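It is worth pausing here to work through a concrete case rather than discussing structure prediction in the abstract. The textbook approach is simple: state the sequence, then state the predicted structure, then interpret. We follow exactly that order.
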Amino acid sequence: MPALIDLRRRIRSVRNTQQITQAMKTVSTAKFKKAQRSVLDGRPLWHNLPSLLERVAAWAGRQVSPLLDVRDEKKLLAVIITSDKGLCGAFNSNLLSRADAFLDEKAPAEASLILVGKKAVNHFRKKPYPVLRAYGEKADKLTVRELKEIAHLLRGQYVFGRTDSVYIIYNEFKSILAPRVTFARVLPVPAPERPAAGEELAPDWEPATGPVLQSLLELYLETQVFHAYFESAAAEQAARMMAMENATKNAEELIGDLVLGLNKIRQASITKELLEIMTAVDAMAK
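Step two, the predicted structure:
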């Protein structure tokens, strides 16, 4: 049976841990609300721009831009977005295990990676895939310029034929309870067939078709990178908030069990002392 002083020390230690988890939950809640506002404000553009681009590409034709070329998938480029830190439940482990399965499924296609987040960098460090770029430090504070550089790199890799498809693998924020691992194919840009004659009036282009489509394609790639990055950030903070809430509740339950054990030991000690006193009194009375 543990001594009283050991139990008191453990209770004090668990209470200190509970205060830390409570503070981390508060910080994550504040960060989550900020990230959630960014996601909700950006979703109308992120979700509607691809359909607009598909219509424009259908009108203009696939020959206008090399980003519309569809090739056999012999080489692929995957952007994998995780967090820098842990303490967020299965947020990173689920995504990384699904990413491994996805890359294995795509074999024998040659895969190259762009990694965002220390967890992704550490996970793929011993893997055989070439890494074009890695953001292993302060991935949660990437600037708009750095995100645009990623989009520019994706465009260059596809235009020069170094890859036949581009995927972004990230956690999409669907609810506070659980994020959804998403595999988004961003290149080649899907384009529906040109509508039949008479079904839809073709637009009058001003300026020409090429510059309009090129501008939309650049905006499309940038917004898809922004979409994945900010969705992942919101999902990370939601997962950490829930993990810290569960840890705080578990600490509270553990403290209750330890206090109950402490009281039982104190009660047993008091009962033993009373029995010794009563035994001594009876002995003296005789």
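Step three, interpretation. The helical segments are 4-60, 91-106, 118-123, 144-159, 209-285. The radius of gyration is 29 Å.
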